[in-house]
User: Which sequence fits this backbone?
């Protein structure tokens, strides 16, 4: 007998649901292919039509794209897709050229099961609302990314950064596929006028931070960058253009190593 | 037709788990103790260990289509997932739940009785590890307990990486069999 019989049953159910979804997807793909054939035939008969994209870069029919919610919206615990683990407040929204629409949320960690010794405070979570698929059409399973507490940012109070690869890095037959876009996101003090990413060869990307809701201290930013910039770092500048900290080095794949 | 999963290899079970939900349940059942023991020893909290184990198996279930048997046996692949889940959870400061959310799995409701059983698993795993032949014990400890890389272990043990992989594989298999017997 299993030590956790509930988990064995949950996994069996999840495996059954997964199998059913795969079956439905296969039927859906077949129907879509049949529909496309009919559509192409109709366009040919009409003697023309709009140019169509060679392939849909979006992740498939299973994910329903819901636009970003207004800043300040509180998504209650257990609601949303995926269900939120605690009340989560939308602190910024926007779009980037490749990843499309994103939504940044802040949520308290208090009351959740935390690892012993883990910092408590707020978690910042970035969700790519309609994640692009890989080039071969495989859906990217990960639409979200997040971090909690002040971990790793002790020398730069109020300033934090994390990265979300779009699509997620993947290794196939020994080859590493780099993301098309890396979303660098985080929080800056409210007195910040700009957030800047700098890298080798004079690369400098500046954005203005998003003003978050009044209920949450700080402003927020999401900066789309290309991978492999080399020696890239991020810093915030006050309204006079003075750097607010020593800056934080960005991680691979934005940097080379 | 009912399958007797006890006689099937891990490779066979994982191959069939792509289509048969019972196969993955069997894979869970045979590696549950090993994974729980892995986490219980590291986080020292039965409830967190159970959550981490649930996330590990959910991630493994999602990753089955991408699983390709190479040099490592399936159990090493599973422990690799477990290591990643633990690292990710430590980084985020809370137990990772992404794979379970994606699969629509609710949070586990754990009774005191189950928690007690999980606490006992770590001790059993350590005892059983002590009972392995010295070479296998050394290799399993270095790889699974100390989380070291194969090349690093091979340098220390003065043998090839392939030999280390073999020892880890045999050691884990022996551990699993012994854990099955102690059920």
Assistant:
């Amino acid at each position: 007998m299993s030590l956790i019989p509930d988990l064995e049953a949950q996994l069996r159910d999840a495996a059954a649901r997964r199998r059913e979804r795969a079956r439905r997807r296969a039927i859906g793909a077949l129907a879509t292919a049949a529909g496309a054939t009919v559509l192409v035939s109709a366009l040919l008969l009409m003697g023309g039509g709009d140019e169509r994209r060679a392939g849909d870069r979006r992740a498939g029919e299973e994910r329903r794209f819901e636009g970003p919610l207004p800043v300040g919206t509180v998504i209650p615990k257990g609601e949303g897709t995926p269900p939120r683990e605690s009340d989560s407040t939308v602190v910024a929204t926007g779009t980037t050229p490749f990843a499309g629409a994103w939504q940044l949320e802040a949520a308290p960690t208090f009351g959740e099961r935390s690892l012993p010794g883990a910092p408590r405070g707020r978690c910042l979570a970035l969700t790519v609302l309609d994640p692009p698929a890989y080039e071969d059409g495989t859906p990217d399973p990960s639409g979200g990314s997040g971090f909690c507490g002040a971990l790793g940012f002790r020398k730069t109070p109020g300033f934090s950064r994390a990265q979300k690869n779009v699509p997620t890095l993947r290794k196939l037959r020994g080859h590493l596929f780099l993301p098309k876009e890396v979303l660098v996101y985080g929080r800056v003090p409210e007195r910040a006028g700009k957030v800047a990413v700098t890298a080798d060869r004079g690369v400098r990307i500046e954005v203005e931070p998003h003003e978050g809701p009044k209920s949450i201290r700080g402003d927020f930013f999401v900066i789309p960058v290309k991978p492999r910039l080399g020696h890239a770092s991020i810093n915030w500048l006050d309204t006079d253009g003075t750097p607010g900290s020593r800056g934080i080095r960005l991680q691979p794949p934005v940097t080379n190593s | 037709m009912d399958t007797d999963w006890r006689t099937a290899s891990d490779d066979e079970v994982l191959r069939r788990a792509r289509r048969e939900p019972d196969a993955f349940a069997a894979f869970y059942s045979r590696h549950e103790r090993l994974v729980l023991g892995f986490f219980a020893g590291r986080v020292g909290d039965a409830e967190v260990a159970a959550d981490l184990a649930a996330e590990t198996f959910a991630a493994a279930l999602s990753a089955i289509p991408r699983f390709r048997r190479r040099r490592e046996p399936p159990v090493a692949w599973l422990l690799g997932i477990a290591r990643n889940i633990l690292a990710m959870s430590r980084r985020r400061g809370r137990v990772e739940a992404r794979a379970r959310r994606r699969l629509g799995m609710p949070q586990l409701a754990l009774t005191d009785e189950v928690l007690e059983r999980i606490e006992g698993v770590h001790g059993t795993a350590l005892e059983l590890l002590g009972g392995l032949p010295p070479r296998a014990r050394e290799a399993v400890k270095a790889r699974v307990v100390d989380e070291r890389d194969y090349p690093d272990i091979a340098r220390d043990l003065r043998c090839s990486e392939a030999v280390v992989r073999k020892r880890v594989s045999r050691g884990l298999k022996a551990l699993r069999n012994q854990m099955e017997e102690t059920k």
Remarks:
- The first helix of chain A runs from residue 5 to 46.
- Chain A touches chain B through 38 residues (CB under 8 Å).
